[in-house]
Amino acid sequence: MPIDTPRFDAEGTSIRAVIPTPRGGYLAMTGFPGLLTEVDGTPYLDPLQMTETLEGLRNVGARQLLVLTEEAELPEGAFPSIKVISQRVGLGVYFSEIIDFHVPGDAFLSEWPAYRTRFERALDAGETVALSCQYGAGRSGLVAAWLLMGAGLPAAKAIALVRNHFSEAIENQLQEDWLLEQEKG
């Protein structure tokens, strides 16, 4: 982790990486706050861990969080819970889903210009923009790399930077190829 990158608790939160951007701000990638798994594989929400993760995001300078997860892939009540706790810790939360292991679809792409403008302004102001998917690697890494490309990095360098901070990021060839295609226009 570069010396100027804000420190975060990787053990007590689901924050996977905090990445410096050429714009001056940071991108934080996180698994869905509070999402844990029982020994038998059953997912559940832990409100304390959700709070700790959201507070951790605020502590690294985030004021906004984009949740990329589909509501149906999470335990019942996940979206209402994150809305309440995010508000309590002073973090704006937005939802725009991408199917797990996929790339942005039409609905996401139609919403993206407004999000991109909002996030680029935050990065220019030195803030951290937080991105969350189920685990904090695939969709979060894809959008992080895409924002880095918007800040002027070539696709290959953006992908490498994201993976340098979290090696599991951008989970598959489909996501990597999509980013390389975005660079071509």
Automatic annotation (TrEMBL):
Q: Which InterPro entries match?
A: Prot-tyrosine_phosphatase-like (IPR029021), Tyr_Pase_dom (IPR000387)
Q: Name the coiled-coil region(s).
A: none
- Residues annotated as domain Tyrosine specific protein phosphatases: 106-177
Q: What is the protein name stated in its UniProt record?
A: Tyrosine specific protein phosphatases domain-containing protein
Native source organism of the sequence:
Sulfitobacter dubius
Lineage, broadest ranks: Bacteria, Pseudomonadati, Pseudomonadota, Alphaproteobacteria, Rhodobacterales
